[in-house]
Design goal:
By secondary structure, the chain is an alpha/beta fold. The protein contains 21 helices and 17 strands. The chain has a six-stranded antiparallel beta sheet, with helices on both faces.
């Protein structure tokens, strides 16, 4: 009998060692949470004849714990709501968890005794499952707490449990490190894409072109706000260079060492805006095959440029407002709160006050964005900069196209000054590019402006008329832009930089009637 018992004991130990060795080999190859769960299920079944009750993982703050994995089949008799169970958020102060953290080895909780002492929800759950004891163990790597593991059984071998726990601890730490590496890799890939877009699409301005009064006001405001963390709202027509101003503010801030992230709110489909801004977890929705970082996380410790903010749908505005206010977010399909330090620069060509009044833009978001507004003037309001901008673009497209144009002819400059530029600087750049390509010698003699329509022909073709006719049309144009206001703040006299009485006299002399400008 002694020999039989000894042989059985040896056979049992050999079996345990074989299972542990197999578990070690499986753990060594684990790269994902799913692989680890399968390995844990197998070893608990083969060695301890039990199932995993719960494995809670420590959050980044070291205080909270989130459910990481559990075996649903263990709780079939208990008839519980698994989604509700998975949503339970614990921390290190929860009584059972606190006891496990303080102990160097697994703690055994007798279910009946716990029900008599506290009648807690956990003890009631353990009772429903039908085992005598609950086992809680702290999983550590070095001095760092990784997770807590809970098992339910009538009796377990503590030494085997300790060996299993140490290997699971290392596996979880490896998975977390691997996930962080994947996130860093993804972030680098995103940044690489942004850098390529930046090189391809953004003007290579060493400084912004323009020295007139209007631009001097813009430069002054930029210098006041650049080094702060305040939110900036850039207003202005399409094509005035709002993104260029945003980049200049970012490059003059203490965040300049990190890449500014741009989001075009008008280009994002409404159903993907949340995922684009805040990211998503794997399996959050159909097609979410991997975890993805959102633009806010990519812009952490940097600047997020929200272009065309006026185009954002109302439902997305609510979530954006919360993130701006709280400085924290949750990925789509995620449960963890992620802190972010992001400086917001928004831009729009819409009148947001009118959008608020019409109910298309949230007033609370408008006030949150409108901390430091900067109005970017249209090209029509700074015609003194047209020649400098034109020369800059000629030099740029000279280089790009192998041309050798060294000056712009007076006739071409006259064309540029007489055109109204509805497309602003962007239109000027594209027209100069086309004109450079059409030029065959060293002088740009003509700018290929769009064909005139009946509506703007009288205003734009003024240089084919007499001096008196030119003056008359110029005054009418100024009056139209000022909505018929002659003198006072914002009136035509102020725009033309002449006294109001002088303008009245000229209008009388040139027979300009109200019907022509109002």
């Amino acid at each position: 009998m002694a020999n039989i018992i000894t042989n059985e004991s040896l056979e049992s130990k050999n079996n345990e060692q074989s299972v542990l060795l197999q578990f070690s080999n499986e753990i060594a190859g684990v790269r994902t949470k799913e692989d680890l769960q399968l390995a844990i299920i197998n070893v608990l079944r083969d060695l301890l004849d039990t199932k995993l009750a719960m494995l809670n993982i420590f959050d980044d703050d070291g205080i909270g714990l989130s459910p990481y994995m559990f075996d649903r089949t263990l709780f079939e008799k208990a008839e519980i709501d698994f989604d509700k169970m998975e949503a339970v958020k614990l921390d290190i102060h929860e009584p059972y968890t606190a006891q496990v953290i303080k102990s160097d080895c697994a703690i055994i909780f007798n279910v009946e005794e716990e029900l008599e002492k506290t009648n807690s929800g956990f003890a009631q759950l353990w009772k429903k499952v039908g085992f005598e004891n609950a086992y809680g163990a702290l999983l550590k790597v070095g001095n760092s707490n990784v997770a807590t593991m809970w098992l339910l059984a009538d009796k377990l071998d503590p030494s085997i449990l300790k060996g299993i726990c140490s290997q699971i601890s290392v596996a979880i730490a490896n998975i977390q490190a691997n996930e962080k590496l994947l996130l860093y890799k993804q972030q680098l890939e995103h940044e690489n894409v942004y850098l390529k877009e930046q090189i391809k699409n953004i003007y290579n301005f060493t400084e912004i072109i323009g020295s007139g009064k209007q631009m001097q006001k813009v430069y002054h405001l930029m210098s006041l706000v650049a080094e702060s963390n305040s939110t900036v709202l850039i207003l202005g027509e399409t094509g005035t260079g709002k993104e260029l101003i945003a980049r200049a503010i970012h490059n003059a801030s203490h965040r300049k060492d990190k890449l500014m992230i741009k989001v075009n709110c008008a280009a994002m489909p409404a159903n993907l805006i949340e995922s684009e801004l805040f990211g998503h977890e794997k399996g959050a929705f159909t097609g979410a095959t991997d975890r993805r970082l959102g633009k806010f996380e990519l812009a952490n410790n940097s600047t997020l440029f929200l272009d065309e903010i006026g185009e954002m749908p109302l439902e997305a505005q609510v979530k954006l407002l919360r993130v701006i206010q709280e400085r924290e977010l949750e990925r789509v399909g995620g449960k963890d709160t992620i802190k972010v330090d992001v400086r917001i620069i928004a831009a729009t060509n819409r009148n947001l006050e009118e959008e608020v009044a019409a109910g298309r833009f949230r007033s609370d978001l408008f006030y949150r964005l409108n901390v430091f507004p900067i109005y970017l003037p249209s090209l029509r309001e700074r015609m003194e900069d047209v020649e400098a901008l034109a020369n800059f673009f000629v030099a740029k497209y000279n280089k790009n196209n192998g041309k050798n144009i060294n000056r712009i002819a007076p006739k071409a400059l006259q064309q540029l000054h007489s055109y109204l530029w509805p497309g602003n600087v962007r239109e000027l750049e594209h027209l100069i590019e086309r004109s450079v390509l059409m030029t065959t010698d060293s002088i740009l003699r003509e700018v290929y402006l769009p064909k005139k329509t009946k509506k703007n022909d009288a205003e734009e073709n003024i240089f084919s008329k007499s001096l008196e006719e030119m003056e008359r049309l110029f005054i009418i144009s100024a009056l139209k832009r000022c909505n018929g206001k002659i003198s006072g703040a914002g009136g035509a006299a102020e725009v033309l930089d002449i006294p109001g009485n002088t303008l009245h006299s000229k209008m009388k002399k040139l027979s300009i009637t109200k019907s022509e400008y109002f």
